[in-house]
């Protein structure tokens, strides 16, 4: 019997939180995002007017104490429409990225783990998909499926699946060569178990970081598609739709375009800051350089 | 023999969780010309920190030399400005590392990398420097040096890369060579070749060599004198033959017993229980006491490095109250 | 036939090729390895980097698919085993890795690491699995409060204990260990070797022990196979090989291995060359480019293994 008594050192504090703490900008991003999320959730409480309520008497009024951000050509309150539009933007962004992430990562892990011809075939397809401009691909899919909220989500998800295949495949290939994966094979674990239980949790952080950046892109795509009329149909307020409607009167009523654009800008910015902060927190090579 | 390099009471501290802890403390080492001093220890013993402190190559943030002198030919290196120190590095004291691939620039030919040192430190022209580079590769016994000078590091094998690193280190005819585990990454047959080379170079050039290693077998092959380090301190120092014949400190003794030997049959190895204490968790009293088979209540006092009983005329010293000279122990 | 038997094992890799990979080359990592590990015995596989010892150990357990050759375990052909047979064989043949950090999944607790193999192989109910994991943890000398910790919280030696516990939790008959103590300090290395000694005696385990360190091999193995560039060049009882090596490569390896005794400084033949690349092995005997005793025939033909004493085989034209 071994007489050795081993002692284990005490636990270390959470490194992720520490790194996030060190970078002040990341808290700006997180704060901004929380604000946007809250305004989406509490839109019915925060909105001073009904976003669909038309009032011809008040059409195209500039910002005033009653209509903080002015009204549009139907006399609807821009602030209220903006708040409700947040819901659509976040919902589309989140769901489309979630679908793209799930499907793309599964394909990427599979391609990376199996390798060989299967991998080459999948990556060939991915390269073809990546060579289409995102907007063009979304436009094609949306036009084929028809304009609706569900189809918009599906269209954006399809355009963003290919990047996730790429992102999941590279770390899978390096994880595949790690000894803990080999150890799993030596213990008789099935490939499905190795991919799902041992590889996925180890590469998840890489994927989540990129997901926050792609969510920003999804929100941009949603706005673009809505702008050209392939998004959610009126009268549901969306940021892209609002810009399109305001475009006709852009010279006289600047507020119709400026405020929705600002909303898109801030949301995309917040997501990008968050993505970069997460990447710094997770990538040990960058630690201590902030 | 006067000392070429004399390190006295060197203490280097690292910042861990906002507090300074000594990585090495009160390290005394002296190195004469034409001498190989082996510094041996396990990971966490502070042997590499000692070498890096000597050349002041520690990271700027989070590390500092707390106390002590590093006397090279009478000058205290610890007090030099960074600019003066840069002249000492490479010119007077050179260093080679464990991993020769990461120390060489993959986009430059080996010849150009050696020549670069010669051009900077000795002001040679590019042509003359390349000629000298070829001679240096020949001196470190790289076969066909005229062709090798024009090749890139990836065309060199591991042993040849380490030879190229040695050639770079020797380019400015240093008086002291610090070798930090230079053969650890090499295979044994190649390791032996590099050890023989270092020994020959020491003799031919009359260099002082500080050889840092974890391998007692390598120490026995190359060292004239040995310093054994444990938890940041020198625990024993002696002439090489004496140390292996009569290890005085219980740690040295235990290390020798824990090492499986190729030349003799040992049915049981005697492991040292536990592990080396971390920089923040060193015990009070003798640092080795918790793992020592001879530990007694007196070991609660931190021992000093001093002559051992029965050392005869030698300068055999150990940091253990049980082995100290009788009059000092009393 | 009980135990492991390996005959003429070969493993080649193809590197390069493809669109931008340049010309495809074959790396002959393992050319010809034959050995057998009888029940309860311990066989050492020793050689320098690039000799193929590690690849051979992986090909034997089919962690890499062998290119050619025959591997049987208790008479069952490992190479042609069906997935179901292979699962049963995996329970009986386990692997210990060199790097105790890389071989543990950093996101799984020790409990999950130890219970997972039992769960996958459908052994016991949750309570039994917990008991077995706890028993194996204390058998490798770790306290029970290690169970809910994660690999990064342990020292190198402790992690290797966990790696050993994971390999033994399925109660295998054969353990293939690839340099299990090379990443450890001398004092910790001795602890792990002592642990493996104890486990071998208590559980009648067979070992195939891969190492570059002749001292470790001498301590742990009954029989030793010396490898050079994919070939077993000499095999026999460990003590005879260490005290009286026959093959010129074994002689060089033995004399180059440092001994902690300054009175014993030897000067082995000063050979200039290093190990050739397995992507471009020399003709004839693979060692002839560095061999101080090579002659014409060595450049032309690969010597066959000859028995020079009972249980002692050497592949060299000198014998």
Structure description:
The complex is a heterotrimer of chains A (290), B (330) and C (319). Helix content of chain A is 71%, strand content 0%. Chain A is built from eleven helices and no strands. Chain A has helices at 15-22, 24-41, 43-46, 78-114, 116-131, 134-145, 149-176, 179-186, 191-227, 239-247, 255-282. The termini of chain A are far apart. Chain B has helices at residues 47-54, 82-91, 100-103, 110-122, 126-139, 145-148, 158-170, 188-205, 216-222, 240-245, 250-258, 326-329, and strands at 3-16, 19-32, 35-40, 63-72, 75-76, 93-96, 176-180, 208-213, 225-230, 233-239, 306-307, 317-318. Chain B has an eight-stranded mixed sheet with strand order 6-7-8-3-9-10-12-11, sandwiched between helices. A four-stranded antiparallel sheet of chain B has the order 2-1-4-5. Chain C is of the alpha/beta class and 319 residues long. Chain C is globular and about 65 Å long. At the B-C interface, helix 7, helix 8, helix 9, helix 10 and helix 11 of B face helix 6, helix 7 and helix 9 of C.
Highlighted features:
heterotrimer, A: 290 residues, mainly alpha, MetI-like fold, 11 helices, B: 330 residues, alpha/beta, Rossmann fold, 8-stranded mixed β-sheet, 4-stranded antiparallel β-sheet, 12 helices, 24% strand, globular
Task: Give a short summary of the structure.
Chain A has 290 residues and is an all-alpha fold.
Task: Give a topology summary.
The complex is a heterotrimer of chains A (290), B (330) and C (319).
Chain A: H1 15-22, H2 24-41, H3 43-46, H4 78-114, H5 116-131, H6 134-145, H7 149-176, H8 179-186, H9 191-227, H10 239-247, H11 255-282
Chain B: E1 3-16, E2 19-32, E3 35-40, H1 47-54, E4 63-72, E5 75-76, H2 82-91, E6 93-96, H3 100-103, H4 110-122, H5 126-139, H6 145-148, H7 158-170, E7 176-180, H8 188-205, E8 208-213, H9 216-222, E9 225-230, E10 233-239, H10 240-245, H11 250-258, E11 306-307, E12 317-318, H12 326-329
Chain C: E1 4-15, E2 25-37, E3 42-46, H1 53-60, E4 68-73, E5 76-77, H2 83-92, E6 93-96, H3 110-120, H4 126-139, H5 156-168, E7 174-178, H6 186-203, E8 206-211, H7 214-220, E9 223-228, E10 231-237, H8 238-243, H9 248-256, H10 296-300, E11 306-309, E12 312-314
Parallel strand pairs in C: 3-8, 3-9, 6-7, 7-8
Antiparallel strand pairs in C: 1-2, 1-4, 4-5, 9-10, 10-12, 11-12
Helix pairs in contact in C: 3-4, 4-5
